[in-house]
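Exercise 7. Given the components listed, write out the predicted structure of the assembled complex. Treat all entries as one system.
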Amino acid sequence: MGKTPTGNILKQEQSLAYKLLLPTLIVLALVAIYPLGQVIVTSFTNRVFASDQETKFVGFDNYAQLLGVTFKELEPKKDKETGEIIRNEETGEIEYERAIMVLPRTPNRYKELFQFNWFGKRIVVGARDPEFLGAVGNTLVFTFFSVLLETIIGLFLALVVNSNFKAKGLMRTTMLIPWAVITVVSARIWQWMLQPGTAGFFNMIMYRLGLSDGQASFLTNSALQMPTMVMVDVWKTAPYMALLLLAGLQMIPKELYEASEVDGAGKIRQFFQITLPLLRPSLAVALIFRTLDALRVFDVFQVLMSSKMYSMASYNYFQLIQNRAMGLSSAVGMIIFVIIMIFSIIYIRAFGVDQT
Amino acid sequence: MKKVLLTVLLVALLSVALFAEKTITVAAGAVGIELELARQAAAEFEALFPGVKVNVLDTPDMVQDRLGLYLQFFEAQSDRVDVYQVDVIWPGDLAQHFVDLYEYGANDYVPNHFPAIVENNTVDGRLVAIPWFTDAGVLYYRQDLLEKYGFDGPPETWDELEEMAHVVMAGEKKNNPDFWGFVFQGNAYEGLTCDALEWIASNNGGTIVNRDQEITIANQNAAEILEQVAGWIGDICPEGVLAMDEEGARKVWQAGNALFMRNWPYAYALGNADDSAIKGKFDVAVLPHGKGESAATLGGWQLAVSKYSKDPALAAQVAFFMANYDHQKARAMESYNPTIKTLYQDPEVLEAVPFFGSLYDVFTNAVARPSTASAPNYNEVSTLFFKAVHQIISGQSNDALATLEELALDIAAVTGFEPVFE
Amino acid sequence: MRRQTKKKINKVLFWVVVVFVFIYLVFPFYWALNSSFKTENQLMMTPATFVPRDAEGNFAPTFENYKSVLTNPTFMRAILNSTIVGGVTTLIALVIGSFSAFALGKLRFKGKKLFLYLVLSMTMFPQVTVLAGLYAVINTLGISAMLSMILSYMIFTLPFTTWVLTTFFKELPVEIMQSAQVDGATAFQTFYYILMPLTAPAMVTTGLLAFIAAWNEYLFALTFTSIETQARTIPVAISLFTGKIARQEPFGEIMAGAILVTIPIVILVLVFQRRIVAGLTAGAVKG
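Answer.
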């Protein structure tokens, strides 16, 4: 490469860039390298938290423990004398023997995760840690719905506040409130409102309106648990989305709208032709960070669900603090890391965030 | 930059102060009166031993947060806390971080305390914590309502409780749709372990893991009583009981919306507060029983001395001092159950908290959770247990015995103990 | 005619959505406010009331919760601590973050993608996983609780500010920079006089979001301030609210504490947004 002027400018730019990146690198190296390195190393050991027990390397045992699954076929129950297949008296469906009879117990115990029918056969899926796999499932479902809803509501709020509607000022104030309430308290507010019995707001209002007897139990009824969690989380985080999108909206030059108005474009056309494309980068970043946070959701699950239903992070907390299984919980942390990384890469690729 | 300098200066100053006199730091509860009494005791100790400073640190009342905090200290082998207030279920799991108090003269104090708690706090012959105050499950009942419906006393068996609840609910529910027969701690957490242990033990179903480290939970008696409880949900207990902790149950109870409540003694003074809806209308009794004798789960807190303390001998003296007769008496007056036997005959204490006398047997015979037998895996065992119980009583599993058999296998996988099947 | 009715229906529909969202956002806060004026027994009352009422149904608010929160020295001190920790964290994260963001958004260099992923990956672990390691680092450094919090909050604020500001810097037209360079401005001048004012709304928003993240943090703060109790922040102080007796949860006080710290924040944010955003953007457009 010759020393062309452009080459020089490039070099200058490059060295300036590295200088500018240095402070960030130093700070993150100081606070993050050791803890993150420790997590990675510990995840391959059987280390017990706060214990003098000797730590050994166990390879991928922790990962196998968390992710290990097995498939077994279930035999139909047969009458001991006649050898006939027993059917349920009411439904007529074949009854199968208990999963515990076919799932392996040694050297590792597998527990039933779920069952399904496959070409007339009944298959049971066993997992070494069904709780963790359940937590992964819960978290993914939770993340999908809560990020989707908060994006819609957040975008709506941002558009209202950025417009000339009468409700603008009111909305601006309103949307700040949930976000400003301290997180450890906001879950408690909801817990209070969701109380069983008419001391709780939701039961009281349903009772007053004659919709129910006021004894619904939102946190234990398995059909209501997930919608409740999503409702609580969206309340808290839609404003976050709204603020980030609002900043994006404010960066769009007003001239663009004026020009398109001259062209006679309607509000809706403007939205799809100008607003949405120009909002894409802000939307991408907001989505990345919200998804990242949702996948690590902890407080709301810990306060409202305790051990009734785990998220990945609350399961991690449980393993570390209650069971002191530091090796295992580090492996949980690593798996969460990998899942989040996959999501991030998908977003970054889809939105082209890393393109210059 | 200035800030850094300032901090350095401050740390330097502090360390000079530290070397000038001996400081013992006690990690205790944050609760108003509890903390105040601990600080008073600390001040008295300082007055007796000039040159010693006793710091009382308030730690969160949320048990999990407190445990998490302690574990961070132990992991870092921190010498910054000398004395820890520990839950009755922790001595087994945390024994390795505490000194043996017998080496520091605990022999003089131990005979005065309840033997059951001393046994609970003894791990491999080492006394790892001195009992401080105790707790046991009791039955709260509405005297006024039982009288109104013609019952002359609290229920003695679970069947009687069910029957009384049916009768009273049939009458009360007409005017008050929120009225229920019985509330307890039904959320999936440690509190359910306590409640379920009481049901099972009182039906001759054992204590999950016995002292010989056999897993005894998979038995017909245990399954039977859990199925009975499952039948209560939606009948005499609200469905919401499955999400209730101590405070959740007390909220229903103290609003006058429950006939019976299982809870710890703390709810007594609060229920008799001036603006309480049930002031003077209730009393406390021994929990009902099934086939066996009535059982109350042991709760409460102990003081332990950290192995990493710079001066464990002095720290042990502070612990003994704070747990002595006078200080336990001061706490007893505020309805913290003492662990010293003779305090239950002290006239001043009995006047302040009358049921201490009538429930003396409950406190002395309280059933310990199998925390020492299953150490260091108690938390994991308990979690498996309360989750299985929650499944049964919430109706997610309809074969209680099968669920308990699976539970026994799970516990075996965690502890390596032998399960016993009937 | 038909077009007009359609427009009307749209308008009504829009207002229905606005009202619904408004209630959804505000009501839980109202319920907290309502609860903060109730005594323990009013809180337990069935059915729950929209305003504090006594047994006879008369309006009867109590100020006890506020009294005890306002006379709680730990809480008052915590407000100051949280403000300092949140403020300093935000400032550092914004300044350092905007340096990197400028490089990432506007300069050409090798390893950009790697750096972006590297920074982001710092925040991909759940907090509790890194806590033990972080506590060890803090112990080794031997720094004060305040400094520990500020430093450890960089783990989640710095990647955030870096990423958000990068996208905003990237969006700015290259021509502005080129014309500045033609005018002989150094890169720093370009950054300070041109990019900063233009991205002011983004800066303010990013700062606010980072501030609240730091303001809300509980787990790290609880651990780092456990010994140095005078450095406790608001979430820790609120979690240490207790009743008269063990296990009793002072719900009214917790609500009062939450209300007391929420309202000033909201007002502050409103003032901040309006003043600064308006001022800076106006200046930039004119310039």
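Discussion: The longest helix of chain A spans residues 5-42. Chain A touches chain C through 101 residues (CB under 8 Å).
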